[in-house]
From TrEMBL:
Gene3D superfamilies referenced in this protein's UniProt entry, alphabetically: Rhodopsin 7-helix transmembrane proteins
Protein name: AGRG4 protein
G-protein coupled receptors family 2 profile domain mapped to chain residues: 1-153
Key words, A-Z: Membrane, Transmembrane, Transmembrane helix
PROSITE patterns per record: G_PROTEIN_RECEP_F2_4 (PS50261)
Main location: membrane
An example Gene Ontology molecular-function term: G protein-coupled receptor activity
Topological category with respect to the lipid bilayer: Multi-pass membrane protein
Residue stretches spanning the membrane: 33-54, 61-83, 109-137
GO annotation, biological process: adenylate cyclase-activating G protein-coupled receptor signaling pathway; cell surface receptor signaling pathway
CC per GO annotation: plasma membrane
Phylogenetic placement of the source organism: Eukaryota, Metazoa, Chordata, Craniata, Vertebrata
Localisation per UniProt entry: Membrane
Amino acid sequence: MLNMLFLTNSWLSSFNQPSLCIAAAVLLHYFLLAAFTWMCLESVHFYFALVKVFNVYVPKYILKCCIAGWGIPAIVISIVLIINKDFYGNGSHSERNPFSNFCWIQENVVFYISVVAYIFLIFSMNTAMFITVLLQINSIKSRTQKRSRIWKR
């Protein structure tokens, strides 16, 4: 849906319908945040699979992942809409080129908080999970090498 909305966004903005443009911008923002949220959930799953291998049972794990994957972006979008729905709209990047219109977030502060900070948080968490998994794999490898040396002796 993110790709579909991104590709049709300029066409939707050409209709000059503010409500259509707000809906397109909200959906584009939602699916962008959802994609990154699911990427973060995948890193958590990666952590569970490679670090917490045994005795990891999370009741209704898929349901909880779905609630987080679709719910957290919905909360962010709801907060932005509650504050002011006019943060979304049709913005032209160039007055000379009428085809550069795009339905998106119009306020820079809202963009930096609800997109850039959110994605930075996701990347920070993914980096932490990745480093943890690498350290765990390295420790398993070193323990296996020590055992093999002992058995060879």
